[in-house]
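User: For a benchmark we're assembling, each entry needs the component sequences followed by a predicted structure for the full assembly. Here are entry 17's components. Please fill in the structure.
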Amino acid sequence: MRGLSILLWSAVSLFAQRSSLPADPASIAAGGEIYRGSCSGCHGAAGEGSQGPSLLSGRVGRLSDQTLFNSIRNGLPGTSMPEFPLPTESVWRIAAFVRFLSAPAVQANAAGDASRGESLFFGQAKCSGCHMILGRGGHPGPDLSNIGALRTLRQLRESVLTPSARVEPGYRTVRASLADGRILQGVARNYNNYSMQILDSQGQLYLLSRDAVKEFELSDDSLMPPLANPGDLTDLIAFLARQTTRTGSP
Amino acid sequence: MRLLTLLLLPIAASAQVTPSAIAGSPNSVWLTYNGDYAATRHSPLAQITPGNVRSLVTQWVFRLPGAKQLEASPIVYDGLMYITNTNEMYALDVQSGREVWHFRAEGAQGSRVNRGLAILGDRVYFVTADCHLLALHRRTGNLLYDVEYASFAKGYTTSMAPLAIGTGILVGVAGGGSGQRGFVAAIHPETGKEVWRFWTVPAKGEPGSETWGNFPAEMGGAPTWTTGSFDPELNTIYWPTGNPWPDFYGGRRPGDNLYSDSVVALDATTGKRKWHFQFTPHDVWDWDANENLVLLNATFRGKLRKLLVQANRNGFYYILDRVTGEFLHAKPFITKLDWTTGLDDKGRPNVVASKIPTPAGTKVCPSVRGASNWMSPSYNPVTGLFYVVTLEQCDIIVASAKEPVPASGFRGTGNEGIPAEPGKFYLRALDVLSGEKKWEYPMPGPARMWAGTVSTAGGVIFAGDDDGNLVALDAHSGKDLWHFSMGRNIFASPITYMVKGRQYVSIAAESDVFTFGLFDGNRVN
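Assistant: Structure for entry 17:
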């Protein structure tokens, strides 16, 4: 809850220009309360989706404020989204909270020392051993050059704290024994019954016919180790949240 | 275990792409938009011949989700095929057609099509519709830089495939229809910093500015929306430019409007102009000269020359000396051509006054789409033939003297087709040194496509036709040898390459990339 409060305060500037949405943290928090009672059952506690669709997608992000409001108030005919005939102020508060959930981290002015976070990323925390930002760093983890525009603060925190909770497609770890006796370890960028494409920690790519693969083992456990010092989390997130190649993206 | 992994050699080789490797393309690889710096689109591969081409079968099809009109030529290197769509690039395992990585430029603005990419070192480069050049790691798709080289907010957009020449990644812009000032820029491959920029509309006081009257250079157009050619020996790049703006009304821009509708020869190191040749002075028909510039060396009128040839949108096939820019020869390559009585000995057209567009509308041949356009021609040095897709069509062009406003959609009014005279495409083989037609392949269809060609040493020409077919024609005779209906329109040009001893042909069509190879009963992936 404390983390949420920090995020809410950070989000104030995000909503400053949305005249139809309440911008103050108290209203967003109030919207969150209603959301948890009325919306989270279908859309997930953090908007990640369950029975209902994710609210973190670009599609929801591109809805106008008024369309978002109308979708909540009137429901979506032909879908399982019901109407919520709540007072107008409450609906706007829910809409503000939904916006808060899906706001890219770069727009949230994340708290923490980003400069120290950078030092951690490229040093003690060893993130750059597997991840790259604008060409600095290593393989085979996902490129983080624009991660602040692609993830919410909540998603960034989750990725650092519980990296195996959500492994990106194309980044499942793999150990493959080849027919010629060689053994490869890395991530499976793709595979099917006929071919397999593996990227190893040196950034080398192996394009294999499945005839060449004697056996292989995939794992959903991320290669990413836990953060050695949990106290570094805030600064590390502050750094990652600011990684974007374009202002205003996405 | 990790040590063992380190000792393994990657199955995909890891050699860096050098400028000399690009200069040697195409061979087994395809390393530029046109395959080679000279834009011949001629491959030395000869496994597929007129005798066996009927055994071609599809190897794989890859769909780019959301793509509607792919116009890119892929690049193939080191086991991977790279292809672009608007604001995104894919890398595919070229043998299986499986996605290896995908990069989307989130936040990029604009929705123009994209025609391809460049490769150099360990990097692949492409432009987004809002005029950013992006460098990606070629094996992972990791972003290495993202630099803006023209302002989308000021109306600039782009769609072209960059050209990598070692000292710079060459980029251009669209804008002939919206009033931006064209340029070619070289951007440093490693740092993303601009090395030089050549403006295709000279500033006031510069040579050529006298050809615009008082029209502002900033609105002049002359865009650079296709990929130029490069002669490493002469250290010269050749870049084609588009129409002056407004497209159809020239009353506010008196003069020839240099360097619109031209080829500019630029020093590759400095970007300084060496010479220029203007195909359509004071254009009021929207006949961009952005068609490919094909470089070849041949004996012309008894003298070995370095030549540059182009089948221009205005209906003439041109031969220039690419060392000096001297006009050597031109010949119409379409029959529906009425805007000029011919060219003088300097290549300047004698314009028919009644073909200047008026507010009431003027019928002009060729059409605004031109006798040819950006779809790629090819040249086979063995047959001595230049293979070009041509369009026989006329238009009604309407001009307006309305005050031009950049980026407003205003083009000086516009054009409309003539329903009773539908256009028709032909693939024509021209004698490269005379422009004389040797054979033609008519294309029934709706006259909608933008498909080009590739030539092979096997004696087969591959081209997209106007009815959604990839066709294989005999390079000498034009005989129809094989076709495959892709069930969709084609707006791209085919390429050919070789992997593990097998020659392949690939082409994009609407949302998909198709790859073909000779039937192999042992193939399993």
